[in-house]
Design a protein that fits this description.
mainly alpha; globular; 69% helix; 9 helices; 198 residues
C-alpha cells in the first residue's frame, strides 16, 4: 500500500502537471518548415508551464513575460536549427532558463513578487486548506534544496519532464538528473514527514 506522503506527492503532481503528453516531433518539423499555426500551438501548449517555472525561480511576472517572449522569438528566428528528434519542450525551457539566469546575473538580485494566483476549484474549504498547506510545504522544501536539485525536481516532478528532457534543458547528463532526483525525493519525503499525520 502506498504511504501517505507518496500519495500526497502523486496527487500534487497530478494536480499541477498538464493533462496530456503530446508527441512534439510533427510540431517541431512543421515549425522548422515555417508553419505559423504549429508555432502558435507550441506556444499555447508551453507558455503557462514556462511562466510557472520561471516565476517559481523568484523572477517577477513582468520579467518572466519578457523572457518567455524572447525565448519563443529565438526559437522562431532559428527554426532551421531545430532537430525534430530532440525535445523542443526541453529546448524552449533551456533557452528561457538560461535567459532567466542571465537576467538575475545582470540585475544582481532576484525579484521577489507574489506567486502566480492559485486556480479555484470546487473542493471543500477543508480540502482547499489541506492542499494549500501541502503546496506551501512542497514549495518550501524545493526552496530549501540546493538550487540545481530544486530545479531538477521542478522539471521532472512538477513539469513532468523525462530525465532526458531535463538533461537537455539544463545541459547535463541524464545520470546527473537521476542523481539530483534521488536526492530531491529523499529531501521531499523527509520534509513532508510533518504532513504524514495531518
Amino acid at each position: 500500500m502506498i504511504d501517505p506522503i507518496s500519495l500526497h506527492l502523486v496527487l500534487f503532481a497530478l494536480a499541477t502537471t498538464p493533462a496530456k503528453k503530446v508527441d512534439e516531433t510533427p510540431i517541431a518539423q512543421k515549425i522548422k518548415e515555417g508553419d505559423h499555426d504549429a508555432f502558435k500551438d507550441f506556444y499555447d501548449l508551453h507558455y503557462d508551464s514556462l511562466f510557472r517555472f520561471l516565476v517559481s525561480k523568484n523572477t517577477s511576472p513582468e520579467a518572466v513575460k519578457d523572457l518567455i517572449q524572447k525565448a519563443f522569438i529565438y526559437i522562431w528566428e532559428h527554426r532551421q536549427r531545430i532537430d525534430p528528434q530532440k525535445s523542443l519542450r526541453a529546448y524552449i525551457f533551456q533557452i528561457a532558463y538560461t535567459r532567466m539566469l542571465n537576467h538575475h546575473r545582470d540585475n544582481k538580485k532576484f525579484d521577489i513578487e507574489e506567486a502566480v494566483p492559485e486556480q479555484h476549484t470546487s473542493h471543500t474549504p477543508e480540502d482547499s486548506a489541506r492542499a494549500s498547506d501541502l503546496k506551501r510545504l512542497i514549495d518550501q522544501a524545493i526552496e530549501d534544496m540546493p538550487e540545481k536539485r530544486g530545479t531538477v525536481f521542478q522539471l521532472c516532478f512538477i513539469e513532468d519532464f523525462t530525465y532526458k528532457e531535463a538533461a537537455e534543458a539544463l545541459e547535463v547528463s541524464p545520470k546527473t538528473i537521476e542523481n539530483h532526483m534521488g536526492l530531491a525525493l529523499k529531501d521531499m519525503r523527509k520534509y513532508l514527514q510533518t504532513f504524514h499525520d495531518y
